[in-house]
Every structure is written in C-alpha cells, then in structure tokens.
C-alpha cells in the first residue's frame, strides 16, 4: 500500500476546485446572481481585500458559496459512489478502510467525508491535522475513522511528467471552455467593434508586433503562472482565472460580432500552440508546488534525506523540460499570431 503524498492530494484538490468554481460561476450567472468568485479574480489587482471580502460579506457572495458547496458535494458524492473522478483518472487514488466494515456503513463514512470536503473552510481545517497525523498522512476525520488515501501503483502507469501535464490540461481547458460557454450563451457579451480594414504593408511591422505578442505571453507565463508556484499555486490559480476571463470575453465578443468564421481564421491557428505553452507553464508551477510540499512532508514524517533528494532530482529534470516546451510553444504561437495580425479588428 502506497499512500498518496501531500503534493498529489493538494494538486488534485486544486484541479477539482478550478472545475467546480467555473461551474459555480456559470450557474450563478444563469440565475442572474453576480459571480462573486469571478469578481474577485477580476478585481484582485486593484484591491485584493475588497475583492475577497465581497465573497463573504455580500448576499450574492454567500449564494455563490452555497452553490459551490452543493456542486462540490454532488461531485464528491458521485466520485465516492462510482470510484471515478479526476483523482482516480490521473493519480489512481483509492480510499480504503483499515477494517472490513459493511458496505452501508462504509458509504455513510464516505458521504460524511464528502460533506466536510465540499465546504472549503471545513476541508482546510480538517486537512490541517495532517501535520499531527503525518505518519499515515491522514486528516482528522480519516484518522478517527481509520480511512487511508492510497495510490494504486499497479493501475497507475502515467509518469510524473504526464500526471502533471494531464492535470494542467484539465485545469486550463476546463476554466477556459466553461467561461467561454458562459460569456457566449449564458450571458452573451456585447459584439466587438471592428473596422474590418486591412492594414497596408507600410503601416504594419511584423517583427514589432511579434515581439509585443511574445513579450506579453511570456510575461504572463513566467511571472504569473510559473512564479505563482512558489505561493503553493495560489498566485497561479488567481492569475489563471483572471487571464482567462479577459481572453474568453474577447473571444465571445469577437464571435458575437463576426461569427465562428473569425475564430477559425484569426484565433484557431495560434490557439493550441499558445494555450499548450501556458499549460506547460502551469505544469512547471505544479512541480514547484510539489517540491515545497515534498519538503514539508519530509519534515512531518522525518523521512531520510536520500528519498527527498532523489525526488528533487526527478523534479529538476521535469521543470527544465516543461519550461523549454512552454517557451517554444509560446514562440510558435506568437509567430502565427503576428502573421495573422495584418487584419485589424
């Protein structure tokens, strides 16, 4: 039996929350409730405190928290009943009980566990007890009920490299496409105004435009996504939502003004190189987060330095590969986007 380590549990939770917060925001807007979480992600650069406090001191903010709790509870309950979910798909997570309890009692234990996990405050408090139950990496509820979170190595054939890549794909594209659907169909944004003129060759400087695009994209990737890993992914998580809100609003506006043809012609060609570049940036932030949490886990469990240093060696190789792929894809995306930039929306 191999326990699921601290960093893997944390990354699974972040991945689930990115999906669940996106769904919560879409549901809120569908029922004409202000999306408090999206409001925070939009306003955090201007006033972090005001943006955050509106989540807990406003009527619509509390409704968003309630919707998030309900959506999370439904997700975690289905995961417990079926054994299928993000955690099982990527990390082959399994939940076992030390004793052979009957199925009805076991399901009851899992449902109570899901309720605790579905409310983020109770989950944080419960999870903090891992510091005191470090030997088996159990939170307080699991410790009292002899529940263990394990990793099925026989079924898990994905390398660490692909585990973090797949996780980043789920995080990025779930946020992006749910927000795009929201701004296109749930609350359609206003059309993007366009002159529709073609710039003359004398007024368009390809390399200058390319440099601007590449500089902006790499600034977002390196200083927002990758560096955010040192904040235990919190900075990355916030920046990811913030940037995707802007991107999806622009794309939805463009679609409203010019239809799907404009997306196919002027966005789709560079879409996957550019966004996959960001995905590898997120993966890098995950590895940094893993390194920090692995150190904390080693301190909690008094693990030998050999294991810790060996794990760091693997992470170092992965980080270099991720960063290289991220910058290469962003470079390719900028080349394509600049080539299409002669069209002036």
Short description:
The protein is 73% helix and 3% strand. It is mostly helical. The chain folds into 2 domains: 2-151, no CATH class; 193-340, no CATH class.
Describe this structure in words.
- The structure is a single chain.
- Strands 1-3-2 form a three-stranded antiparallel beta sheet.
- 31% of the residues are buried.
- It starts with a strand and ends in a 5-residue tail after the last helix.
- It folds into two domains: 2-151, no CATH class; 193-340, no CATH class.
- It has helices spanning 6-30, 36-43, 48-57, 59-82, 86-91, 103-118, 120-128, 140-144, 160-186, 206-226, 234-258, 260-266, 268-301, 305-340, and strands at 2-3, 93-97, 147-151.
- 73% of the residues lie in helices and 3% in strands.
- Helix 10 packs antiparallel against helix 14.
- By secondary structure, it is mainly alpha-helical.
- Beta percentage is under 5%
How large, in whole angstroms, is the Cα Rg? 22 Å
Number of helices: 14
Spatial shape: globular
Layout of secondary structure:
Elements: E1 2-3, H1 6-30, H2 36-43, H3 48-57, H4 59-82, H5 86-91, E2 93-97, H6 103-118, H7 120-128, H8 140-144, E3 147-151, H9 160-186, H10 206-226, H11 234-258, H12 260-266, H13 268-301, H14 305-340
Antiparallel strand pairs: 1-3, 2-3
Helix pairs in contact: 1-4, 1-9, 1-13, 2-3, 3-4, 4-6, 9-11, 9-13, 10-11, 10-13, 10-14, 11-12, 13-14
Which labels suit this protein?
3-stranded antiparallel sheet; 3 strands; 73% helix; 14 helices
């Amino acid at each position: 039996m191999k326990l699921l380590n601290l960093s893997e549990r944390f990354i699974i939770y972040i991945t689930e929350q990115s999906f669940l917060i996106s769904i919560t925001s879409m549901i809120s807007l569908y029922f004409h409730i202000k999306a408090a979480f999206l409001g925070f992600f939009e306003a955090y650069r201007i006033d972090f405190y005001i943006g955050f406090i509106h989540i807990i001191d406003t009527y619509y903010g509390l409704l968003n928290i309630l919707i998030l709790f309900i959506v999370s509870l439904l997700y975690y309950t289905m995961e417990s009943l079926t054994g299928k979910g993000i955690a099982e798909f990527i990390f082959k997570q399994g939940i076992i009980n030390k004793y052979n309890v009957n199925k009805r009692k076991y399901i009851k234990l899992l449902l109570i566990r899901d309720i605790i996990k579905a409310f983020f405050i109770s989950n944080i408090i419960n999870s903090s007890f891992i510091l005191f139950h470090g030997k088996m990496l159990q939170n307080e509820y699991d410790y009292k009920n002899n529940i263990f979170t394990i990793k099925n190595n026989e079924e898990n054939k994905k390398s660490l490299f692909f585990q973090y890549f797949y996780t980043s794909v789920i995080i990025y594209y779930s946020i992006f496409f749910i927000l795009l659907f929201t701004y296109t169909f749930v609350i359609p944004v206003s059309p993007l105004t366009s002159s529709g003129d073609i710039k003359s060759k004398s007024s368009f400087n390809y390399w200058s435009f390319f440099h601007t695009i590449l500089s902006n994209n790499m600034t977002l990737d390196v200083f927002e996504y990758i560096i955010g890993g040192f904040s235990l992914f919190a900075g990355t998580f916030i920046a990811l939502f913030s940037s995707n809100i802007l991107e999806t609003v622009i794309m939805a506006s463009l679609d409203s003004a010019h239809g799907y043809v404009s997306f196919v012609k002027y966005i789709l060609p560079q879409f996957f190189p550019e966004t996959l570049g960001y995905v590898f940036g997120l993966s890098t932030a995950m590895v940094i987060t893993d390194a920090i949490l692995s150190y904390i886990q080693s301190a909690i469990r008094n693990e030998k330095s050999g294991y810790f240093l060996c794990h760091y060696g693997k992470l170092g190789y992965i980080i270099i590969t991720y960063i290289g792929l991220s910058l290469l894809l962003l470079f390719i995306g900028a080349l394509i986007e600049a080539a299409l930039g002669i069209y002036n929306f």
